[in-house]
Amino acid sequence: MLLAFHIVLFGVLYLSSLLLHVYKRKNDLKGDYSSKLWDNGRQMVVCLWDLYGKLWHGYELHGVEKIPEGPGLIVYYHGATPIDYLYFMARLCNQKGRLCHSVADHFTFKMPGIKLLLDIFGVMHGGREECVQILKNGHLLGVSPGGVREAFFSDENYNLLWGNRKGFAQVAIDAKVPIIPMFTQNLREGYRTLGKIWSFRWLYEYSRLPIVPLYGGFPVKFRTYIGDPIPYDPNVTAEELAEKAKTAIQSLRDRHQKTPGNILRALLERFDKHQKDD
Q1: Hey, CA dihedral for 188, 191, 194, 195, is it positive or negative?
Q2: Distance separating alpha carbons of residues 23 and 81, to the nearest angstrom
Q3: What letter would DSSP give residue 67?
Q4: pLDDT digits (tens, 9 = 90+) for 142-183
Q5: Tens digit of pLDDT for each residue in 245-258?
Q6: Nearest residue to 78 (alpha-carbon basis) of 185, 160, 166, 200
Q7: 7: confidence class by pLDDT, cuts 50, 70, 90
Q8: 245, 182 contact by CB (below 8 A)
Q9: Helix 167-175 / helix 238-256 crossing angle, nearest 10 deg
Q10: Which of 236, 99, 241 lies closest to 179, judged by CA?
Q11: Which residues have a catalytic role annotated?
C-alpha cells in the first residue's frame, strides 16, 4: 500500500505540472506568472491538491480567519515532507482566493519537470531581500526555519530544530509584517524518516544531501492550526522575535498534538467527528 501511495503522490505532483504545461500551451501564455491569465490553470491544480488532501488525510484547516488581509510571514513546523503545507496552500487558495508564496530548499529546484509548477505557485529559494520584497508587495510568504534538518531529524515528539536561525525574523522586521505561526497535527504519524540512525545523520552532516530515507504515507488525520499573529514591533530584535515565533509554534503543538505521536491513534482520528477547538 505504501509503495502505491508514493507512486500516487508523485503522480499527483507530475500531473499538476502536466496540467499547467497543457494550460500554458493551449492559451499560448508566456511568463508573468502573477498574471490573472494563469488563474484558471492555478485553480485546477489547487482543486486537485485539495481533493487529494481531503480524501487521503481528511485534511482540515483551522484558524484561517487569523491570517491578516495584508502581507504576513507564515512560519511552520516542517514534517518529514511538506505535504501538509501543500494542502494548506490549496485550502487557503480555495477558501480565500489567496496565494501564499513559499521558501524552499535548493534541492527542490533540482527535481526535473516541475519548474513551471514552482513558478506558478511562487516557490523560491529566497534570499533575504527577495523575501522582504515579496512581503512589501502585499503577499503572504511561508517559511520553515527548521528546514531540511527538522524534516529529517525531528521525530514523533515534534521537537523544533531551529538552531540559531533568526533570518526569517529579520525578514519580518524589515518588511514590517506580522508572523503567523502554524502547526499540523499528526504530521509525523503520516510520514517518518530514518533520521535516528546515526549513519544517515553523519552522511547528511558530511554531504548536506537529502538522502535520509522516508517511509509512511499512512492516511492519518491531518489538521492544520493557525495561531494568533505576532504583530510587528520595531523595538523587538530578530533574536527576540524568533524566540516568540518558536514559543508560539510550541504552544500550538502542546495544545493540539499528543506526544509522542502514535500512528494507530492518528488513524483512528479519521473516524472522530468531534470538532477540535482552534
Answers
A1: negative
A2: 28
A3: S
A4: 999 999 999 999 999 999 999 999 999 999 999 999 999 999
A5: 999 999 999 999 99
A6: 160
A7: low
A8: no
A9: 110
A10: 241
A11: 78
Inter-CA distances, 251 with 100, 160, 193, 240, Å: 23, 12, 24, 16
Handedness of CA 64, 67, 71, 72 (dihedral sign): negative
The pLDDT value given to residue 208: 81
Write out the DSSP string of 125-151: ---HHHHHHHHHTT-EEEE-TTHHHHH
User: Which H or E run contains 199?
Assistant: helix 198-207
Residues 204 and 103: their CA atoms lie apart, in Å, by 21
Hey, what amino acid is at 236?
A: V
Cα Dmax for the chain: 53
Angle between helices 167-175 and 128-136 (to 10 degrees): 40
